[in-house]
Structure formats: C-alpha cells, structure tokens
Amino acid sequence: MPTAKTRLIHIDDLGELAFMIGRRYKRMSIRIIPGETPRVLVPYFCDLQEAIDFVNLKKEWIKSTLIKLEEKRLRPTVFDENTEFKSRSFSLRVEGATRNDVRLFYYNGILKVQYPDHIPVSHPRIQELIRSGIVEALRREAKHFLPKRLEELAKYHGFTYRVVTIKNLKSRWGSCSTVNNINLNLHLMRLPDRLIDYVLIHELCHTVEKNHGPGFWNLLDKCTGGKARQLDAEMKKYRTQLF
C-alpha cells in the first residue's frame, strides 16, 4: 500500500495537525488518537487548502474532543477493592486491614496491597503507594522476561543489537538508538504476548531500518507473517501509562 505524504501544519486555536495525503483515503476525515498529533486524512485528489478549510469547519468539534481527552488523561485512576488489574504474570488485590501502614505482598501470582481500613483507599498517599508498588512489580517482571524474549526473537529473525534497557517510558512502548541500543517500556507486561512480541520485533527492525518508510514496514511484515498493520492497529487500544 502506498505511503501517505504527511505535512505538519499549525492551525490557530488547535496547534499542530498532521495532514496525511494519500490514495488510500476515499474521503476527508479527522482522526484523533490519545497521545498523538491529530491527523487529517486527505484524498490525493483534494488540495491542501481544501483540507485546511475542512478543519476550520470542524474546529469546534476538534477542540471539544481534545479537551475531553485531556480531562480524561488528567483524571486519576483510583485503585480499590473492585479494581481489575492484571499483568503477564500477576494480578492486583487491594484490601483494607487493621494496620497503620500500607504493605505489599507478592505470592502465587498475586500482588496484594493492604492499607489501613480507617483511611479511605482513595487517599492520595495510599494511591501513591499502590501505584509505586505496581510499577515496581512490573519493573521486576519486565527485567526477568523482556531481555530474554528479545534475545530469542533476535536470534530467530537474524537481528543483532547492543544493549537492552527497561524503563518506565511515558509515551513510547520502546525505542532503538542509532547505535542499536534498545529501550523497552516496563508497561509492556500489561499487553498480550502477541503484542509484546510485536513491539520487540518492531524495535529489532529499527536496527536495520531507522525510519518508518516502506522498507521498515516490508521488513516488519516479513517478521510478523504479514500482520504488521493489523498488530499496529491493535496497539492503539492500549496506553503506555496506566495512571
């Protein structure tokens, strides 16, 4: 499929938008994905000014949508007894107890958090400790699993890399430097195995193809059995940060 031509244009009251012009687009539309630059999908037979006029007509809707997404992003996640949270190898259990501090226990695939039952679980300090406990558990899980799995996939597909580092990344699932050092987000442990593998293979492909041009997607397609775009679309359902 031909690659769309992209132009970044500043629109008053909206900021920077990505105008993507390509034959795949049959009609003008706007796509807003949390954490990404809003995209304007433009059919190849439309000129740029026509696309800008279209955005101006939709400006109030775009502004409203961006505000709602930002409010949702800033809304704190509250972990309590009803929270359903699972990683690749553990699930969270929060419970009140007769105690004066917060304790975390890890056993048999359960991360149990006990908090003082005379204090609301929504108290900022308790929530901060729960979040810190989850991040630390994810970090340990990721350090145990991801480097080994990356090595397995690299050998299978014939890639080489230098160093792998596990980090609590804010906006990316992973990255590959110009010298082929790979960074991986510890929050990968919240994804299904097929998507973990997809991200690892994605970064391994960057050891050969440094951008997201046709060569990169052809290579990624080859390594994923022709499912690169499908897996990439599935990744949009997940956020890099839980909180």
Cα(first) to Cα(last) distance is 36 Å
- What proportion strand? 15-25%
The profile of the biggest β sheet is:
4 strands, mixed
Spatial order of strands in the largest sheet:
1-2-4-3
Mean of all residue-level pLDDT scores: 91
Extract low-pLDDT stretches: none
Q: What letter string, H or E per element, gives the SSE order?
A: EEEEHHEEEHEEEHHH
Integer count of domains: 2
Envelope shape: flat
Task: Report on this structure.
This protein is α/β, with parallel strands linked by helices and 243 residues long. The chain folds into 2 domains: 5-74, no CATH class; 91-235, 2-Layer Sandwich (Zincin-like), CATH 3.30.2010. 37% of the residues lie in helices and 22% in strands. It is built from 6 helices and 10 strands; from the N terminus they run ββββααβββαβββααα. The strands form 3 sheets. The protein has a 4-stranded mixed beta sheet with strand order 1-2-4-3, with helices on one face. The protein has a 3-stranded mixed beta sheet with strand order 5-7-6, with helices on one face. A 3-stranded mixed beta sheet has the order 8-10-9, with helices on one face. Strand 1 and strand 2 (15-22) form a beta hairpin. The longest helix has 34 residues, at 124-157. It is flat, with a radius of gyration of 22 Å. It starts with a strand and ends in an 8-residue tail after the last helix. 21% of the residues are buried.
